[in-house]
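Long-time lurker. I teach an intro course on protein structure, and each term I like to show students one example going from raw sequence to a predicted 3D structure in token notation. This year I'd like something fresh instead of my usual example. Would anyone be willing to generate the tokens for the chain below so I can use it in lecture? Attribution to the forum is fine with me.
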Amino acid sequence: MKQLLALVASITLVSAGLGAQRAPLPARIGAESRVVIEHVIDSARTAGLPTEPLTDKVLEGVLKGADDQRIVLAVQSLVRELGTARTILGGATNTALLGATASALHAGVSPTELRRLVRPPGDASADAGVLTSALVVLVDIVAKRVPAGAAVSAIGDLLQRGAPERQFVDLRNEVERDIMAGRPPESALLERTRAHLRQLDADPLMANPASRRRPPSA
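-- Reply from a regular --
Happy to contribute to a lecture. Here you go:
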């Protein structure tokens, strides 16, 4: 698994370095599937969506040994999720943030729940880096069988208090350790989140004022 992740990461770096150039699809992809995938990628490019995640999804599927049909379906699903993510984010073009939002959708977090975590349109103080990290941690926590609603609530509370990026990473690591020790996933998340909120209350300087969130409107 570590070798697979390393290969995916290295491929991602290579594809990012290609810039606007069209990355070739693996030779293993059959002719019919190749036409479909290239059409999806071209359509995404025309729509202004990032295409690197789509190419990376193809390469990931090949590395995992998925057949052509599954790869095509995965790419089609991802482009839909990227489009929905851009709508949720109010037209944002940040590739990392779009990818994290799309991953949250794929993990089963609803668009309504995700909107609770997104700053209102026109709020210039939004920190894309913090929000991206928060969404990545959200996906990881949901993957640990924490209910999506509870995970969204916990991440939203920390975002609203202006928690820095490192605090989201710490939360994920702590919850993972608690689950491995036998604690129920949701209980582990709630207890750890409360501890982090107390920490922010006790030391307001930890919080990033630019990252503080207004409570979501009803």
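Some talking points for your students: The longest helix spans residues 68-88. The chain is about 65% helix and 0% strand.
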